[in-house]
Amino acid sequence: MAQQSENQAKAGAMIIPVTPFEQNCTLIWCTATQKAVVIDPGGDVPKIQAAIKQANVTVEKIWLTHGHIDHVGGAADLRDALKVEIEGPHVADKFLLDNVVTSGERFGMTGVRNFAPDRWLEEGNQVSIGELTFDILHCPGHSPGSVVFFNHEMRFAHVGDVLFNGSVGRTDLPGGDHATLISSIKTKLLPLGDDVGFICGHGPGSRIGHERMTNPFLTGEM
Q1: Which domains does the chain possess?
Q2: For residue 3, what is the enclosing H or E element?
Q3: Which of 7, 80, 129, 196 has a Cα-to-Cα distance from 111 of 20 to 30 A?
């Protein structure tokens, strides 16, 4: 338990629900340096900026789990406001980032912009903020370019819309495929270990072990 408490103290996190989709924009920071990252700024940029100020941290990066409008709608504006770089998702989601405006029109979201990240992410890459380092797992299925951020030391992951508490990501959007998604979860996420906790793109987080045993899409998977 002492080790767990020590690990938890190395990072802070704040979830900022944004857009009508109630997407979990997430602010994560290294407590040793107060350097932070915003994951999936889907919109409501002033709300995100207020949370950054409240946490009293310095954001140095924006990370994207995938290219859907509710996760990226505010990315270009926040990048300009904070003068930071965007990392992610995988290049397979380029078609989504090239069509943010069109997607926004479909869902009544105005003021969004098409953009490209400063760095596409691939399986095996690493990203860091302060003293925290995260491994990149490419987990297609919800979208072709979905990625997961995993910190081995803290036993923590941000999984975007790949896996949810009691469910999995929808696969009826362009580029989605249910069999591919389930394969990503079984081959990439479940092997991380039952003790790994995660934040997801919508709703409450969970632990890998809890989902392995209770998630109707995964129950009993070893």
Answers
A1: 2-214 (3.60.15.10)
A2: helix 2-8
A3: 129
